[in-house]
Design goal:
Layout: H1 2-5, H2 10-31, H3 38-47, H4 61-70, H5 72-80, H6 85-104, H7 108-131, H8 137-161, H9 168-190, H10 202-221, H11 232-258
Length: about 260
């Protein structure tokens, strides 16, 4: 049994994920040539668009399609069991507290896994609501609010972890611009402007933070510290998220003013 655990190392895990993504892309390319295609049906059902994933963000559409297909059996089970979409929304919010705690005590690897797993609840709530014809203005409002609250909770965990270092200012900026992206969009829509642009929106922020934490933890596992700074990859990931969130905020602001 111990021989099997020797394969549960970061480089084996990342190699496996990369191999699965490559094989999935090849399989989807050839399977898309058929008319009766379960894969295509799953993607179209999940995206509210006849074109599937076509938005331009930092997360590849291939990755989005792969993850959508991976969690589709869970989605089907939730649809059949008539689980309330609001329950999934609340579960995603509750999991954010566990994520924040793990970040606050420095368990970056575990926190990143919980973050990525918990984000699936946030993906599924809207899809389950649409399929079961359970969409509502109150549900959409709750989802939007708890999404913002979840971000605040998670970043607060990071704020605690970095409270004694200079990076606490970076976390503050990350929280500020992550929230400003959503606020500018909401304010613009209240006045009749469309500003749904930007390559770093909430799903992208969550995935980047989670993947950055996993990669950074892999570096730490093998004792690799770039220029002697602990979890530098994770810090650079947060900087990347902060910068692109700032850019998205400015883009939306000027687009609204231009419109």
């Amino acid at each position: 049994m111990n021989n099997y655990f020797t394969y549960l190392t970061p480089h084996h895990i990342f190699f496996f994920i990369t191999a699965v993504l490559v094989l999935f892309k090849a399989w989807s390319f050839f399977s898309n040539r058929t008319k009766d295609n379960k894969y295509e049906e799953v993607i179209l059902k999940a995206t509210k668009s006849s074109e599937g994933y076509s938005d331009n963000t930092v997360i590849s559409n291939v990755f989005k399609e792969w993850w959508t297909y991976v969690i589709s059996p869970i989605e089907n089970d939730l649809v059949k069991s008539k689980v309330s979409p609001n329950f999934l929304t609340v579960m995603s919010f509750v999991i954010s507290f566990l994520t924040a705690y793990l970040f606050s005590v420095g368990l970056i690897f575990l926190a990143s896994i919980v973050l990525l797993a918990g984000s699936s609840f946030d993906i599924l709530d809207g899809r389950v609501a649409r399929i079961n014809s359970a969409t509502s203005e109150k549900g959409a409002f709750l989802d939007s609010c708890l999404d913002r609250f979840s971000e605040i909770v998670i970043l607060f965990g990071l704020l605690i972890f970095y409270s004694s270092s200079i990076y606490v200012y970076l976390i503050y900026l990350a929280a500020t611009f992550s929230l400003s992206v959503s606020y500018v969009k909401s304010a613009a829509e209240n006045h009749g402007f469309k500003t749904n642009i930007g390559i770093m929106q909430r799903p992208e922020r969550v995935v980047c933070l989670g993947l950055g934490g996993l990669i950074s933890s892999a570096f730490e596992y093998y004792g690799i510290q770039l220029i002697g700074i602990e979890h530098l990859v994770f810090i650079l990931t947060i900087s990347f998220i902060t910068l692109l969130s700032f850019v998205a905020t400015v883009q939306r602001l000027f687009l609204a003013l231009k419109g």
